[in-house]
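A further point concerns the way the authors explain their paired sequence and structure data. Showing the layout once, in full, would remove most of the difficulty. For illustration, here is how one protein appears when written out as sequence plus structure tokens:
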Amino acid sequence: MKWTTGFGLVFAVILTGCTTGEGYYTSAGLAPIPGSITYNGQPRTKLTKSPVGSSFPHSFTDQWGRQVEEIYIIRPDRSLLIAERHYRPVFSFDDD
């Protein structure tokens, strides 16, 4: 009985840490890398026509030559949050 009570308490604490409250991303997001829109800070121009909470992709090549796609979300203060980052696989069709 002690194990199930302890497990329930730990699970409840972990679950409360997962809630976002307002429905927006509240974490800092991923750290920007060279090529990210927010690498040298937030962009100077604000996205005033895009609705808060909307997302958009950005693709670039990083310093190691990998194709990277990032998904940004517009926060209520019009700053950008990197929500996702995907590295595209590089296929080699060379028979060497």
